[in-house]
Design brief:
It is a single chain. The longest helix has 15 residues, at 42-56. α2 packs parallel to α4 and α2 packs across α5 (62-71). Strands 3-2-5-28-27-26 form a six-stranded mixed sheet, with no helix packed on it. The protein has 465 residues and is α+β, with helices and mostly antiparallel strands. Helix content is 15%, strand content 34%. The chain is built from nine helices and 28 strands.
């Protein structure tokens, strides 16, 4: 019987010294420090510690967990564990591990800062409450979506659901598009596509035309999805883990990360001639899991981890290849990700804080970060679809994954529901491909296990002047 995270957590529910247990399991001190920094509650720290052990220890087993508990001084628990039905057979002690992702507590307060963006409260229009059909936060009707899968071809569903978000907040002004116009996603269709070869969650993703590149957290593997042929392949392993993928000057490039000895790096490695090489100059700061995005002739690298969560921002001119440090984020963001929509860079993280900055301003070494209305839920993933900032999935107040698709209204400065996925998920990987499509891969299910399902959101856009 394979070791599952949910079962392991049930066994150690009465263990209060998560740090000692982690050390007895062989989890490195720098990882334990990261877990301690990211979570305030012992229960959450214990969950992250076990999840990291399951992912990274190829010899993880019930026998090894029991031995660690014994070394940590939980003899009575060990006696109960050895006599329990779960471990009554020899196979239960020797079976291989099934990795589970490291989950984050949606209710944790990751950072306490003295200054926050000024946000103005708004409410759902009164007219919206009286309508019989599902509505978005701005009172307009939720579009109907067509689900296209092997089992439900042509089935049409209302995109409303029981996890309607609460009224969100207005954020500061976001730089408008150059022509002053906006666009609204009018209708959506959701298509189920070929599943990824492995479960994926959080991690990193980028695209080059129809080719999508994905790497899940704690992994060196890079998986390639060709959206034009609905096929998957795997590239040469990246030299680091916990890196960030981005296209720079037409080259697939990884930013930051850490090696197998857990040494952080400032390197940028690009895929050239079927191998990873340092094609671009290094950053000033070593960091893992930063946010990175390219546009308007610059590469922007934001935040990440380097002994603590960072606020520092570095910008590389993709022509001169010169690095510049600009104004930092207003606050650290845990496992940040970056999305570019209409020359605006949006940076968000698992705790749902979002900041935005103009790419043309960053090119001039001017960084004015403004707060954006936070996601309606936590553990939500963001992306750009037909020039609009959208968010997918997340977890509700009961930590249940949801299938909701949201769109951010720049003019009204809040999030509205525009559809639903086929599969509820949180912490998924998103990437835009040609044709007004957004590929949604992986994420976590209700048991915090990584999933490999793949859906494509296709939009039909109505332009609003």
């Amino acid at each position: 019987m394979a070791v599952q995270l949910a079962d392991a957590l049930d066994v150690v529910k009465d263990v209060d010294d998560w740090l000692n247990l982690g050390r007895c399991l062989g989890v490195e001190d720098h990882v334990l420090k990261m877990i301690q920094s990211g979570h305030e509650e012992g229960t959450d720290r214990k969950r992250e510690t076990l999840a990291h052990w399951l992912v990274n220890d190829s010899a993880a087993s019930w026998e090894k967990l029991t031995a660690a508990l014994e070394r940590a001084g939980y003899g009575e628990l060990v006696s109960r564990l050895r006599s329990s039905e779960r471990h009554s057979t020899k196979d239960a002690w020797t079976s291989p591990v099934t990795p589970d992702p490291i989950p984050y507590n949606a209710e944790s307060v990751f950072f306490k800062v003295s200054s926050e963006p000024q946000l103005l409260a708004t409410s759902v229009p009164a007219s919206a409450a009286t309508q019989n059909s599902p509505v978005t936060l701005d009172g307009s009707a939720v579009p109907r979506i067509e689900v296209k899968s092997d089992s439900d071809k042509g089935k049409t569903l209302d995109s409303g659901h029981t996890h309607q978000p609460q009224a969100t907040t207005n954020g500061p002004h976001i730089p408008p598009s150059k022509d002053g116009s906006g666009s609204c996603i009018h209708t959506l269709s959701i298509t189920s596509r070929k599943a990824a070869p492995v479960g994926m969650w959080k991690g990193t993703s980028t695209s080059n035309g129809h080719l999508c590149y994905f790497s899940t957290r704690w992994s060196e593997d890079v998986h390639v999805y060709d959206s034009s042929t609905d096929s998957w392949s795997t590239m040469t392993k990246y030299p680091y883990k916990n890196f960030t993928l981005v296209m720079v000057n037409g080259l697939l490039t990884g930013v930051g990360g850490e090696d197998r000895g857990h040494k952080k790096t400032s390197a940028l490695c690009s895929y050239v001639d079927d191998k990873w090489v340092e094609h671009f100059p290094r950053m000033t700061t070593c960091r893992l899991e930063p946010a990175a995005a390219c546009g308007c002739g610059i590469l922007v690298v934001v935040g990440g981890w380097s002994g603590a969560y960072l606020t520092t921002v570095e910008v590389m001119d993709t022509t001169t290849l010169h690095w510049t440090t600009v104004a930092p984020l207003p606050q650290p963001i845990m496992t940040p990700s970056a999305t570019v929509c209409k020359d605006t860079l949006f940076v968000d993280g698992v705790e749902n804080a979002i900041f935005a900055c103009s790419l043309p301003d960053l090119r001039r070494n001017i960084a004015t970060w403004v707060g954006v209305a936070p996601f309606p839920t936590k553990w939500t993933s963001s992306g750009c679809l037909s020039g609009e900032l959208v968010a997918v999935g997340g977890r509700d107040s009961h930590s249940t994954p949801i299938p909701t698709i949201y769109r951010y209204s720049v003019t009204k400065k809040h999030w509205g529901v525009i559809g639903t996925l086929t599969t509820p998920r949180s912490s998924s990987l998103l990437v835009e491909v040609p044709g007004g499509r957004l590929v949604v891969v992986g994420g976590m299910d209700s048991k915090y296990s990584s999933i490999n399902t793949n859906e494509v959101i296709c939009s039909s856009v109505e332009t609003i002047i």
